[in-house]
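stuck on this chain:
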Amino acid sequence: MASTVNKIAHPFSKANLDDLLLKRFFYAPAFEIYGGVAGLYDYGPPGSALQANIIAEWRKHFIIEESMLELDTTIMTPERVFVASGHVAKFADWMVKDNKTGEVLRADHLVKNVLNDRLERDKIARDPTVELKKKAKKEQPLDDAVRDEYESILNRLDEYSGADLGDLIKKHAIVNPATGNDVSDPVEFNLMFASNIGPVGNNTGYLRPETAQGHFVNFQRLLEFNNGSLPFASAQVGRSFRNEISPRNGLLRVREFTMAEVEHYVDPADKSHPKFRDVANVTLNFLRKEIQSAGKNDIIETTIGDAVSTGMVANETLGYFLARIYQFLIKIGIDPKRLRFRQHMDNEMAHYACDCWDAEIQLSSGWIECVGCADRSAFDLTQHMKATGRSLIAQKPIDPPRIIHKTEAEWNRKELGLAFKKLAPTIQQAVSELPTEELEKIRVATEENSYMLVVEGDIAVALTPKYVKIVDKMIKQTVEDYVPNVIEPSFGLGRILYALLEHSYWAREADIQRGVLSLPPLVAPIKVLIVPISAQEAFKPLIQEIATKLRKAGIFSRVDSSSVTIGRRYSRNDELGTPFGLTVDFASVANGTITLRERDTTDQRIGKVDEVVAVVADLVEGTITWEDACAKLPAYSGVQAVEGATA
């Protein structure tokens, strides 16, 4: 039987976690030897491996299991693409400046941080268990009404406009915490990095702030690749860039980051999902927009099936992806008790979206959005069609076919061309765009005289029966054109990675300085540590044999034959999140046995090399638990292997 572990013996320490992540080089400030640049980070070997493993599981969970079409589109994007999408005009945050130092702060974060600090100090002032000497000398509890107002503001923060934030800053005397200085009124700041494409400088481009537009501009090719069939989804993992106003909190707010996005194209008249029944009983924690607008944060715990059937979630496809997002996050190690889905409020939601939910993860700094899942309607494809004149539509069969009565112009192209030359196509286009009522006016007018049509602003053209005739036709319609709607799950992988690290971190009960990252084997950077008791040559053949067997099983391992004690070697690999360790000693060479150590419990089992490797493979694959492994391998007492070697 596996040992039990007390992972909450010590309060969570963000400072200790940050020290560990820096010491083990999960990530570090970029260009650190030059002083660094705010919001830019480099991932070290364990951070890179952890991110790669998260991406690998994301690709399996979404792209492979959902048969998605994978893309890799360019980062540099012409300005006209983002003009059409609305990013040039609207992709902005509100910023304020310190009136004396000029320091720039993001307005909503300033309000959030100051009010949270006041509420925390109020909590301390009200706590009778806190010694008086630990309380600030002049600290007084807030009035109950003020405290309730602060909490209401924080719960509704995402729906405030720039003017609203300015009013809050003035009303509650919010200043720059670092200097105590007043700040300016909020102004908008566009978050995209601008550049020039080519040497001349007359072709403006931007580093993309999301991967989504690369999907939309390729929609027609994707549709053709999918044989014209909907629904289907495209997916992409790639870099994005946002010129954040005041990046802070490590990986939670950065200027360059990795995203994983899905664009699921669906018929707007049918947003059901064929696999919805598979997830209908998945229970999620929901924070509805009506609750937030009332200044509260009460959670509704219900199944995704009930959420869709009651209309809380707009449709099955959106609900299906919310459940799949939940399953993915839990699979890689996010604590389900600290995961909720928050609905965008009406003032916060994009004007084109019909419903949007954020998967938020609770961290030491509060609730952080890590995944957005929106029903973007037909906005994106429609905007790009308007901007380019290119068709970004799909078709569906009509059964039985429809008989449509249509009024249209029938042209004598020869006479029209002789009379109006190059203007003829313009005339035909103008008439084709007229409503049926106006076509009827042309019919009546041309029966007796002519119809005066104005084209190109000021050119009057007299249409007569010589050129055009308005006729009624009966058309058999077998297909219908439509602009697909898009359901978009969008993942911030850096935030998810950090949330996983924070949720996985704890310290040994006997020593708060012995940190452990309980990363699931699925995503752990190193799956197995091979530890010889010394660096003697006698161990090398067996170490090579074990490493080869693990490699053939698809398991990444690392050998640590350094001169420090085995305990120290295991301890530093506990900090790296390595779930399993294999110890090689003299008994291993003599008997072909090795011991298997589990990271969290530090329990050890023993067995033949092939037996242990098979168990490790099952553990890494997730087909057995450590409890199952304990049933397969006998416990290691610490002496029996030595006795076997000397027998």
